Amino acid sequence: MLSRVSRARDTGRPMSQENVDTVVRAIAAVNVRDVDAYLACCTEDVELLQPMVGAEYLGSDGIRRFFADIEDVGPDFRIEVQRMQAVGADNVIALVRVGATGRASGIPTGADTANVYEFSGGKMARIRIFLDRDEALKAVGLE
User: Fold this and answer.
1) Which CATH class is domain 15-139?
2) Domain residue spans in the chain?
3) I want to staple 46 with a disulfide (CB 3.0 to 4.6 A). Which of 42, 53, 92, 118 is the partner?
4) What global pTM score does this model have?
5) Burial class (CB within 10 angstroms; exposed 0-12, middle 13-18, buried 19+) of 19
6) CB atoms within 10 A of CB 4
7) pLDDT digits (tens, 9 = 90+) for 10-60
8) Could you count the other beta carbons within 10 Å of the beta carbon of residue 6?
9) What's the per-residue H, E or C state across 65-132?
10) Digit-coded pLDDT (tens) for 77-135
């Protein structure tokens, strides 16, 4: 369900596809812990919000803290994309499975979540992580 689609100036590809490609690169950067590659996908004032735990990571310092938090909690943390879709020209929703083994407990954990990526100028400006996939779908107008 895609609404209006703008074109990326330099490639002629739909901007929505460019945004999906950016999210793919960002998720790959998380999985290999390449914070600089992740930040290259983001605006300077990026917001990464995890409402379910009340966490906010703002700007490049916040993203660096997010990467440090991942390493502290579950050094083998991974994101596996199950489905990804552009929604209009400025949003991408990704249904993902996250998993990690607790550093202290050694207990493997996992969850199905949904990430909503909002774009500005071809870069991720706001990322919201939802435990409730239906809530994420509503957030982008898909129900």
Assistant:
1) alpha beta
2) 15-139
3) 42
4) 0.86
5) buried
6) 10
7) 444 556 899 999 999 999 999 999 999 999 999 999 999 987 778 899 999
8) 12
9) HHHHHHHHHCCCCEEEEEEEEEECCCEEEEEEEEEEECCCCCCEEEEEEEEEEEEECCEEEEEEEECC
10) 999 999 999 999 999 999 999 998 887 888 888 899 999 999 999 999 999 999 999 99
The Cα 106–Cα 49 span in angstroms is 26
Return the H-helix or E-strand segment holding 49: strand 42-50
Residues 6 or more apart from 1 whose CB is under 8 A from it?
85, 87, 142
Element (H, E) at 46: strand 42-50
Do residues 57 and 66 lie in contact, with contact meaning Cβ atoms separated by under 8 Å? yes
| Contact criterion met (CB below 8 Å) for 108 and 128 | no
Identity at 8, one-letter amino acid code: A
